[in-house]
Amino acid sequence: MEYPSKLIEDAVNEVSKLPGIGKKTALRLVLHLLKRDEEQTESLAQSLTAMRTQVKYCQKCHNLSDHDLCGICASTKRDQTLICVVEDTRDVLAIENTAQYKGLYHVLGGIISPVEGIGPSDLQIDSLVNRLRGDEGEQVREIILAISPTMEGDTTAFYLQKKLKPFNLKISTIARGIPIGGDLEYADEVTLGRSILSRIAYD
Question: In residue numbers, where are the C4-type zinc fingers (predicted)?
């Protein structure tokens, strides 16, 4: 593709490196930015630079944060007896959006995947163990493993279960089953089987 400007070409190349954005979409976005007021474009650039240089990881749960402690860990209104273990920040956002969970989190930063060369030492597992050994651990009563039900996710959950066993805590996983509004005939066998085994009393 021929570009009228090398600067536009460079901008398109950078924007197209973002996930899910091809060259055509990148060009459309770049041309849109050119049409906007210069102050708006500068504001966007400043926001991206500030995000990249100032966002940090919470020292306790490893969620993304503006401060050393994220808002969830710093809140006195959260249930200190619960820690929900998740793969990454997107999972925290998804669970928070349900407004059903009021405990704390621990972000692993990934899951065990031998194929990709990711082992337990590459994840924030030791820091979870250290949390439970510290003063905070005296309050914790339950660990919820909210990890995707894939082979790698199950491997990670199994490893965590063994690692956390000495603490004599209640260890639970999120329920897996048929989604609301779903038809049984379209559910895969594994999901349907787990739904039968994890059945609950009908009140």
Answer: 58-73
